[in-house]
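To whoever picks this up:

The nightly regression suite flagged Type 1 glutamine amidotransferase domain-containing protein as changed. Nothing in the input moved, so I suspect the structure step. Input below, exactly as stored in the fixture:
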Amino acid sequence: MAKVLFALTSHFKDEKGWESGCYVLEVAVPYFHLIKNGIEIDFVSPKGGEVPVKQLDLDDAKVKSFFKDKDAKHKFLNTYHPKDISAKNYDAIYFPGGHGAVFDVPFDEEIAKIASEIYENEGMVCAVCHGGAGLLNVKLNDGSYLVNGKKLTAFSNQEEIAIGTDQKVPYLLETALIEKGAIYSCKANWQEYVVVDGRLITGQNPASDLLMAKELVKALKKKY
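Regenerated output under the current build:
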């Protein structure tokens, strides 16, 4: 059975009091699609334990279904600490979004190392929306950045500006990925868009989470 590691944020509030956390919809939609296809899932976060979420994000029907699922809820409230994870046990790692991800996930060296090891072991690396931040500091064995020269997408600068958070985030994700050598592309705001470049699968925004999951399942079925 294939096994996927979801890498979530532990960040909730910045020094100015701005609340962000994890965008659970980007966890719930891929979770249910992967489970439906017989794929096992574990959760990890920089601090381990419960993942922070804005109250507003809990109102979606799919999110409510996610928290009604006993296994899903337990895993989300009791994420593994990175030191408890062995990369060799996973066929893929997935970084969901939520603005919290830009604050802590890329700066967790253990999570970056796990992602690198999964990729170097012929595994998949996936991200949606702000989860793309998790790719920023993943380095391969040759010292190069994973995203360098890779085609990918993530939450666009225009989308950030459209929701008025461009002045709140510590950096613009599109710009940061390009600075690391990524070949970035996107569609118009809020459109479904997924880029597959070998074993790297990325989605632009929340509208892209299911398509990303479908591409991941397709890739894992080829492997097994």
